[in-house]
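Notes continue from the previous slide.

Worked example: a multi-chain complex. Inputs as given:
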Amino acid sequence: MRVILPDGETRVMSSGGPLIRDLLEELGINPLEVLVARNGRIVPEEDLAGEEDEIRVIRVVHGG
Amino acid sequence: MRCSICDDAAVARSSRSRKLLCSSHFMEAFEDQVAKTLKAGRMIEDGNRIAVALSGGKDSVVLLYVLKKILAGEAVELFAITIDEGIKGYREDTIGYARRISDELEVELKMRSFRDEFGSDLDRIVVGRDEAPCTFCGVLRKSALNRAARDLGATKLATGHNLDDEAQSVMMNYLRGDIEGLLRLSPKRPLPGLVPRIKPLRHIPEKEVALYGILAGVHPEAPECPYAHSSMRFEIRRMMNGLERDHPGTKGSVLRGFEKILKSAEDRPAATPLSSCRICGEPTFRDLCRACHLLGRSR
Ligand SMILES: [Zn+2]
Ligand SMILES: [Zn+2]
C-alpha cells in the first residue's frame, strides 16, 4: 500500500496486520494523535488497510 | 465499516458512546455534547454577550463554528477576539485564517496585539529568558484577552480548550506541585474585573475536535507553533496520549479527579482577597499580576 505520512513523505509498504491501527503501530504513531484517510475518506483506525489502498496519515496539530 | 445508526460509511468510533458513526451522525453527537456541556455548566444565559477567543487554530475555529450553530436563534450575542502575540512565520497565517472564518460565519472580530498591550512581540519578549515561551504566551494572552473582553462589554469569555488541554493542565500543575495554579484553572466564584471564562469543548478529545473541523470544512491548514516543542506541555501531551491509548478513559478521570478537588476546596474560605495589579490594574491575588511579574515590570 501507499502510505503518506504527516510530513509529506510517501512510503510504499505492506503492513504486518490487516487493520489501519496495525499499520500505525508499525510506524510508531499513536492513533490518538492522528486521523487517517483511506483513499481520500476518513475512516476509523479499526478499519482495514489493503494492499491496493492509499493511506494518508493526518497529524492532529496541537493548539488554539 | 458502517455507521451504527444509518448504515453510511463510518468516520470514527465515538470515544463517548463507543459507537461507529458516519460524518453526519458524528457531527450531530458532537454538537449535542457541546450543548450538554453548556447546559450542565450553566455556561450561557439569555442576554449574554459572548466573546470567543479566536486564535485561528483548529480548536478556537471549531468552537466559533459550533457555538454559532448551536446558539442560532438564542437571545445571545457572539463576537470574536484575536490576540496577535507576534510569532514570526506562524501567526501571519493563523491570524489570516481567523479573519477569514469570522467573515464567513458573519461574526464580528476584534484584534489586539502583544505589541499594543505589552510593548513588544512575543519573539522579542522571550529573548534571553529562562521561562519557556509558552509560559509567557499563555500568561500574557490570558491577561490581554480578559482586558479586551471586559473593555468590549463581554459577559462571558469562551475558549477552545479541549479535554486533552484540560487534562494536560491538571497534570502539569500536579507535577509542579502547584496547587494554587490548579485551583486557578477553574474559578467558581465570580471575581470582580475577571470576565467569567467558559470552555464548551472541555469534555471532547482533541482528535474529535480536529475531526469535526475537517468534516465541517473549517479545519485550518495551519503549521504547528514553532515554540510547541519547547514546552513541558508537549511532553505531557505525549505521555497522556500514551496512557489514554493503553488505558482508555485516563484523560476523563484526570478531569473528574480535579473536579472533586475543586469541590472540596470550594468549601474552604478564600485565602486571599482579590485586588488589582499595582501596575496594570488587572485583577490579581497579589501585588503584581502574573503578566507584570513575568515581564519584570516594577512600577
Ligand atoms: Zn449515520
Ligand atoms: Zn499587571
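Summary box: Chain B has a mean pLDDT of 91. The interface with chain A takes residues 1, 9-13, 20, 55-60, 94, 160, 205-207, 210-211, 214-215, 222-225, 228, 234, 237-238, 241-242, 244-245 of chain B (CB under 8 Å).
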